[in-house]
Amino acid sequence: MDPLILEILVGVLILSSFGLAYMVSKTWRVTHVLLLNLVFLTGIVFWYMAARTLKIHDAWRGEYNKQTAMLKDLQQQNVKLVEGSEDDETLKRSLRQLQYELADLVSARGQVWRDIEKVTADPQSGQVTIDMSGKDHGLAEKTIVFLFESAPAAEGGDYLGEYQVSAVQGEKTVVFTPHLPLTPEQLARLAETKAPLSVYSTMPTDDPTLLAALDAQRQQAIIPDQATREQFAAADRPVRDYNALFHTFHAQRQILGDEKAKALSDIKRLQDADKRVVADAQYRTGELARLTEDLKGFQRDTQVVKTYLQQLVAEAKKTTSLLATSKAHSAQLAAAVTALQLENARAVNAQTGTEPAAE
Question: pTM, whole model, 2 decimals?
Answer without folding.
Answer: 0.49
